Amino acid sequence: MVEQGSRQLTQFDMRLIQRGARLRRSPYFDATQRYGCRAYTVYNHTFLPSYYDDPVSEYWHLIEHVAVWDVGVERQVEISGPDAFTLAQRLTPRDLSTCAVGQGKYVLITADDGGVINDPVLLRLAEDRFWFSLADSDVLLWARGVAINAGLKVEIAEPDVWPLQLQGPKSKPLVADLFGDRVASMPYYAFSEASLDSIPVVVTRTGWTGEVGYELYLRDGNQGDALWERVMAAGKTYQIRPTGPSDIRRIEAGILNYGADMTLADNPYEVGLGWTVDLDKSQDFIGRAALRRIKAEGVRRKIAGIEIEGPPIEFNETKWAVRQDGRPAGQVTSAIHSPRLKKNIGYAMLPLPAAELGTRLTIATPGGERAARVVPKPFIDPKKAIPKS
Questions:
Q1: Which of 8, 192, 198, 356 lies deepest, with the highest CB count within 10 Å?
Q2: Spatial CA neighbour of 5 closest among 239, 209, 187
């Protein structure tokens, strides 16, 4: 048993999900146990804390105060060397010639058929050095295969780097206290190298919430516990608490979850991310011919926002079947109840005609069929004014 305030917390029994040493633990893992994490999932072969308290309580705390998340599961693929820029350009359809040193970009990594392999945040640390901060798929192996096949002079490795997210409206003053106003006032998707009591980090103005947020990329895994406790101590003023990633908030914000809302079977245009594809950039990239053809022909399906009628639903654990006029019409990929909107919201991959705004649908939820309709997304702050503020 461990104590947190006046509560007695029982540590989660990791034997319920782990056998042997195959799965990795982040440098913050022991802290997540001390602070009462109640469940974990596995992401990039690493444990990801799911929640410490009721997810609705964690959601309200996120949007009113500041939350800290262990996201060490966002493994980095570091590409460096004389041909690093060439390889980075080849991996993603987004044009990186406009990405300055000290800047990040949300990018896709695509396969030869245009399918989405991953949707990382890319950081350009130097002219010839990049980090790809990954969603849940093995890009390290893909990047090495591409480099070998192309005969490029690069080094590709997984560095000792472990992100920790600070998210919520009070994250900005907290980061100012920790690293100063210059770091706290960085523009959206900028980053800066910094240190905290000699603990080396890269601080980015990014996150997975649609709220103001930052990520601290720890550059020495031996100091994970020290970084966590320093952040928690500084955050007391702002009512900081550890939480799991908020699916409620990311769905409200229109953020997709790789593996659920997009997969290798989906292309950027189907999932509404065609804006990340620069078909005419000067350097070639994997999937260019396929994506050019897909854009010219048009997609036959796309992911759409939906509202589901009835009482609050639980976050979906499987992809729910969708019907239109009694006929199969796709799948719900993510769905959850928004306590702020007082609505059940989510995404569904639908044939193009069914994805038109206002279309009436029937959703097969575990509790029975529900009526639904197609609505605009994102559901809150479509111009991303909040995270940019």
A1: 192
A2: 239
d(CA 354, CA 240): 43
The separation between the first and the last C-alpha atoms of the chain, rounded to the nearest angstrom, is 41
Whether residue 51 has pLDDT greater than 80: yes
Question: What is the per-residue pLDDT across 26-45, written as a single tens digit (0 to 9) for each?
Answer: 999 999 999 999 999 999 99
Write out the H or E segment, with its range, that includes residue 281. Answer: none
Q: Which of 115, 144, 143, 118 is nearest to 133 (CA)?
A: 118
Q: Do 332 and 201 have their domain in common?
A: no
Write the CB contacts of 242 (distance below 8 Å, at least 6 apart in sequence).
31, 32, 35, 37, 49, 52, 67, 68, 69, 70, 232
Instruction: Answer whether 0.90 is exceeded by the pTM.
Output: yes
**Is residue 265 in some structural domain?**
no
Spatial separation of the C-alpha atoms in residues 157 and 145, rounded to whole Å: 13
CA distance 338 to 341: 5
Neighbours of 98 (CB within 10 A): 10
SS3 content of the chain, % helix, strand, coil (to 5): 25, 35, 40
Number of domains in the chain: 3
CA-based R_g, the chain, Å: 21
Same domain membership, residue 209 and residue 63: yes
